[in-house]
Amino acid sequence: MATVTTLVAATVTGMSEANGLNATGSVVGQEDTVFAYVWNPTQPNGTTGTPTQLPALPTVGAPGKARARSINANGVICGESEGLDASGNPVTRAVLWTSAGIQDLGTLIPDPGNPGFFVGNSRALHINDNGQIVGASDSVTGAEHAFLFDPTTASMTDLGALVLAGASGTTDTSRATSINSQGDVVGVSNSLDTSGTPVERAFLSTAGSGFLADLGTLLPDPANPGSFLGNSSAFGINDNGTIIGTSDGGGGLTGVTRFFSGSPPAPVIPSDSAGSDVGPNDDIVGSIGSPAVGFTENNTSGLVDLTTLAATAGMTVDNGTGVSASGQITASATVGGSSVGILITP
Fold first, then answer.
1. Cα separation, 340 vs 170, whole angstroms
2. What percent of the chain has pLDDT over 90?
3. Which of 196, 194, 195 lies closest to 226 in space, CA to CA?
4. Average confidence (pLDDT) over 96-123
5. Does the model's pTM come out above 0.85?
6. Are 307 and 316 in contact (CB under 8 A)?
7. Within a 10 A sphere around the Cβ of 213, how many other Cβ atoms?
8. Cβ atoms within 10 A of the Cβ of 155, count?
């Protein structure tokens, strides 16, 4: 039977998140809808440990909200925090937490009145073991763009979008959701299909290419061979190059999908479902159905209901958010009407 660990007390609201974990079982998330935290196990991949709140950027008045989203093998954490720009305006910024504290990663828009500073908002969504970070930032086009942050230069690169600014009927909005150790990036971007209909599409940007490739959907366009209809999103890529996300499919349903570079995507769960992450061993986690039920899926065990795996009275597991090589899973669960971040150790 699996062991379920409730990671933080959340004494104010009873609400918390567990957004991801690293190879040794350290978990990051948010507590009481305000405080970013990291939970470190007593021993690697253990079921007991200690949570520590992470600092937020300076604000005026009450402490700003912060959320930790991803942690790498070195214990470096990324996420976002409310703060202030150089002119004192409230902003939300992509941030990095290390043993030295919190670092504002800036945005894609330099502040012309304050050299070395930035304007606008950003958020960091994933960090790889090399310290490269991806996310989304306000851009000079007025739309949010996917970015790649390079720790060696301490700077963001605008990854652009699948559609140019000013395209008819849509905006050049994109966000990067995951990066593997090779530096390959996946995410989702606004685009136009071959008939000019606005869509959202999963993309892959291979390391160093500077190019976003549309990964398509589960709906081939019969009038345009090699093209697709509908929407898709990519949420995870691992070091094997396995890409997981969601795509529109038959019957008006959106399902967990595996994407490939240069070939059409394939359904993983051909029903109403969403893929959140793919682990080092190609385990997939996410949610299925409505109301949502968390799941994990792999070649050995097949599809497993996380509520059944957790086997905890009064707890419904709604979504799997991360999975490690050891099989530990971070998830969101409903307990007593509150959403709670948990760690499931099989």
1. 36
2. 92
3. 194
4. 96
5. yes
6. yes
7. 17
8. 13
| CA-closest candidate to residue 18, choices 3, 4, 37, 2 | 37
Which H or E run contains 306? Answer: helix 306-310
Q: State yes or no: cis peptide before 63, omega within 30 of 0.
A: no
Give 139: exposed, middle or buried? Use CB within 10 Å, 0-12, 13-18, 19+: buried
What SS3 state is found at 122? strand
> Could you tell me what percent of the chain has a pLDDT over 70?
100
> How confident is the model at residue 179, as a pLDDT?
98
d(CA 12, CA 9): 9
- pLDDT score of 87: 94
Decide if 38 contacts 6 (C-beta within 8 A).
Answer: no
**What does the block give as tokens for 126?**
């994933």
Inform me whether the pLDDT recorded for 270 exceeds 80.
no
- Strand order across the beta sheet in which 122-127 lies: 122-127, 133-138, 144-150, 155-160
What is the DSSP pairing of strand 302-305 with strand 315-323?
unpaired
Q: What pLDDT does residue 169 have?
A: 82
Instruction: Enumerate helices (H) and strands (E) in the chain, giving the number of each.
Output: 1, 30
Looking at the predicted structure, is the pLDDT value of residue 252 above 80? no
Q: Is 252 left (phi over 0), alpha (psi -120 to 50) or beta?
A: left
DSSP bridge partners of 31: 16, 35
Average model confidence (pLDDT) for the chain? 95
**Cα 198 to Cα 55, 89, 145, 226, 246, distances in angstroms:** 40, 34, 17, 18, 17
CA distances from 130 to 160, 179, 181 (A): 22, 10, 7
User: Are 172 and 190 in contact, with CB atoms under 8 Å apart?
Assistant: yes
pLDDT category of residue 253 using cuts at 50, 70 and 90:
confident
pLDDT of residue 326 exceeding 80: yes
Residue 111 near residue 85 (C-beta atoms within 8 A):
yes
Which residue's entry shows tokens 């409505």? 290
HSE-CB for 241 with a 13 A CA cutoff: 6
Residue appearing with tokens 């652009």: 160
Neighbours of 255 (CB within 10 A): 22
